[in-house]
Design goal:
By secondary structure, this protein is an alpha+beta fold. It is built from 3 helices and 6 strands. The chain has a 6-stranded mixed beta sheet with strand order 2-1-6-5-4-3. The longest helix is centred in the N-terminal third of the chain and has 21 residues.
């Protein structure tokens, strides 16, 4: 697969993640991950079956979600490997009718496995949040003396 085709397929994996989360489709969502993948959204889980079991637990707090992905950067590191970052804005409607908003980024390692580009690891990092106290690693910031 050439770099252009790999970039398009990896972008599709990244965008499908948001689509499947918002649809609550934990089976399709889990298939975006390698069999032994690591997913870290404040706490780490490993393995596709553990990742599949996680989505319903995360979504049970909300009646609706809408994830928006941007600033996708992909670096192909080997014929079957790549790393990427992408930014996310995610709106959530909580059970009490109030909103939770999240601004962050995904830091990914991807692998070509079973004829698809899949996440070997995905780490969620937070720029900011409003409406819910969450524990997600914050994006490292520059020291103020360097600004």
């Amino acid at each position: 697969m050439d770099d252009v085709a790999a970039h398009a397929a990896i972008t599709e994996t990244i965008l499908s993640y948001a689509e499947y989360v918002d649809a609550g489709d934990n089976q399709k969502w889990a298939q975006l991950f390698c069999k032994d993948a690591i997913f870290d959204e404040g706490r780490s889980v490993q393995g596709r079956s553990a990742i599949e079991a996680l989505l319903p637990k995360l979504l049970r707090l909300f009646t609706a979600t809408s994830h928006h992905i941007s600033n996708i950067r992909i670096d192909r590191t080997a014929p079957d490997r790549a790393s990427s970052t992408s930014y996310v804005y995610a709106w959530h409607r909580k059970l009490d009718g109030t909103d939770f908003e999240f601004w962050g980024r995904y830091v990914d390692e991807l692998k070509f496995e079973d004829d698809s580009w899949r996440f070997a690891s995905r780490k969620v990092e937070q720029f900011g949040a409003r409406g819910l106290d969450i524990t997600v690693d914050r994006v490292p910031r520059r020291e103020s003396e360097n600004l």
